[in-house]
Specification:
It is built from twelve helices and twelve strands. With 323 residues, it is α/β, with parallel strands linked by helices. The chain is globular and about 65 Å long.
Length: 323
């Protein structure tokens, strides 16, 4: 597999009246052609800011202060806004968290898809509309002509999400970033959207970065997983290793929080405490106040991300199962 994207020591901080808040603090990962990478963690851990940083869409008071984002060996952080506009939607597309809020309420669906195509490709309005119809069919919309003439508020959440996916795929991007693509949808629509993403990956060969907090979605979709906590990657490995050989206490906690159908449980497991605010990180390990295995070193010394296997990285002084 060829490396499509390489992110090295990415730091995105927010400069506020309350001080400097490290939303993403030294994150590194890579993405191969055709790979599905899941970025996992609770709300507030830095997943969405990481995804927005990849497209240089972080707005003030946020700022990318360090790192490299190499796409096809070119650093996106060195591109100007005009160059990035060509890459966004054309080479790298994003499905945002709230599909209804992400669509323009005053324009019909057909216009929104068609303008995306015309913006990036040298085609006529007629050709763009034909392509828009094809895209709506490809995402499972049975009456595309009717949907083309509707406004976002006239569609269901699941239908809006399909429209967002069609817009994201309009220019056949090499990378698709899906930020919590099923969060606001009911269970049956969630399953349809995930199946759609898997089918589209097979058909187009696009690599996918899947932002989620749902380990069930990870098991179904991902090849590799990066677990984030308090702005940092705490575990980075294959999906098989995450489920069968998790090494960070936080990863173990996330897995234990999944309801188990075949086991009687008096109450669901939950990780004690809360994710600290960006300005409230402890001096040592950021997970130490919530960890069942905390020691004095954890409290006083921040751990580095260390390699514990051929492709297994853990940010922990005493990785579980490693002696």
């Amino acid at each position: 597999m060829n490396k499509l994207l390489e992110v090295d020591n990415l730091k995105t901080y927010f400069y506020t009246a309350d001080g400097v808040l490290p939303a993403v603090d030294g994150v590194s990962f890579s993405l191969d052609e055709g790979e599905v990478l899941a970025i996992v963690g609770e709300s507030g851990c830095g997943k969405s800011v990481t995804s927005m940083s990849l497209l240089n869409l972080v707005s003030k008071p946020g700022k990318i202060i360090n790192g490299e984002i190499l796409y096809k060996s070119e650093n996106l952080l060195e591109k100007n806004e005009e160059e990035m506009r060509h890459i966004r939607g054309n080479e790298i597309s994003m499905i945002f968290q709230e599909p209804v809020a992400s669509l323009n309420p005053v324009f019909k669906i057909g216009r929104q898809i068609g303008e995306t195509i015309m913006h990036h490709q040298n085609v006529s309005k007629k050709e763009a509309n034909m392509r828009a119809l094809e895209l709506l069919v490809s995402v499972g919309i049975s009456d595309p002509l009717s949907v083309m003439e509707k406004y976002p508020h006239q569609l269901s959440g699941g239908m809006c999400q399909r429209v967002m996916i069609s817009i994201a795929l309009a220019c056949k991007p090499k990378i698709l970033i899906a930020d919590e693509p099923t969060t606001s949808l009911d269970v049956t629509i969630q399953a349809q959207i995930l199946r759609l993403l898997k089918d589209l990956k097979k058909e187009t060969g696009a690599a996918i970065i899947l932002i989620t907090h749902d380990m069930g979605v990870v098991a179904q979709m991902a090849d590799n997983v990066m677990v984030m906590y308090a702005g940092q990657a705490v575990e980075y490995t294959s999906v098989k290793e995450v489920f069968y050989n998790p090494s960070h206490p936080y990863t173990v906690g996330l897995l234990n929080s999944i309801p188990k159908i075949n086991e009687e449980q008096e109450a669901l497991y939950n990780i004690k405490g809360m994710v600290p605010g960006m300005g409230e990180y402890p001096a040592g390990c950021r997970f130490s106040p919530r960890c069942d295995f905390v020691c004095e070193k954890c409290i006083n010394e921040p751990p580095e991300l260390i390699q514990t296997g051929s492709f297994h990285y853990v940010r922990c002084h005493k990785p579980l199962g490693r002696g």
